[in-house]
Structure formats: C-alpha cells, structure tokens
Amino acid sequence: MTKRSWFAAIVLAAASSVVPVLGHAQVVDIGKREFSNNCAVCHGAGGKGDGPLAAQLKKPVADLTVIEKNNGGVLPVDRLYEVIDGRQAIASHGARDMPAWGIVYSSDAAAGLCFGSATPKELESFVQGRIVALIGYIHTLQVK
C-alpha cells in the first residue's frame, strides 16, 4: 500500500464522521459540504450523474454511486484521489471535463490560510484533507 493509500485510509475513516463546529450546536460533514458545493451541480445531489449542468456537458457525467460496485466491491481511493485532484494529467484519458480540484483547493488554501504565511507543506495538507473528506463522502453514496 502506498503512502498516499495509508494516509487516505486513515483520513477516510475520520472524514466519514461529522466534525462539530466550535461555538455552534450544529455539525459539519466536510466531505458532504465539498460535494454539495462543488460536485452536485454535475453529479447531482445523490451522485447519480443527474445534476443541473449534466445535460450541457459533452460527455456523460459519472454515476458516483456505483464506483465500488464496478470495482469488485472496493472503493479505489488512490484513483479517486487522482481524478479529483487533477493536477497530474493522465494522457491516456484525453481531455478533462471535470475541474482539477487540486488547483482550486490550492488557490483557496493560498488565499485563506494564515494570511499567506502557510508553508507549501501546510498548503498541500489542506488540499489533501479536502480531497480525502470528499472521498469519504463519496464512499457514503455507494450502493450496497
């Protein structure tokens, strides 16, 4: 298992739980929030590929609820991480319709963390956390 796989497995377990927001009575599921804010517009609220923008795209939008089923009952965390991150293009897959969220998250981190004083490692940790939280939420969408 790669270093990223171990990291993802640990954080996936943590990301699947909800995190209480300090000073508030409500809880926040970071992965669900990421999905609702960034993915549902194409993939739909339930992840079936039926979001409001899906019909306007050239390629059909993936049904995220069957990833595990289509992969022999295993959620391919490393592969999902690469697809969501998108910073390293995979030449054999052709042009990418989905945004490279790693770039978006990096920009968000640079703009918002420590008012520009975060180290590159801290910025990357922020990106990884958001992606792994999102994968944790996608895991909850899988059909059984």
Structure commentary:
This protein has 144 residues and is mainly α. The chain has one domain. Helix content is 48%, strand content 3%. Strands 1-2 form a two-stranded antiparallel sheet. Strand 1 (19-20) and strand 2 form a beta hairpin. Helix 4 packs across helix 5 (120-140). The longest helix has 21 residues, at 120-140. It is globular and about 40 Å long. The two termini are 25 Å apart. Residues 6-18 have low confidence and may be disordered.
Strands of the biggest beta sheet: in what spatial order?
A: 1-2
Catalogue the unreliable spans: 6-18
| Number of distinct helices | 5
Helix content: 40-55%
Shape: globular
Proportion in β-strands: under 5%
Largest sheet: 2 strands, antiparallel
Please tally the β strands and state the result.
Answer: 2
* Element-level helix/strand string: HEEHHHH
- Rg value: 16 Å
Mean pLDDT: 81
Computed structural class = mainly alpha
Number of domains: 1
Distance between the termini: 25 Å
How would you briefly describe this protein structure?
The protein is mostly helical and 144 residues long. It has five helices and two strands, in the order αββαααα. The chain has one domain.
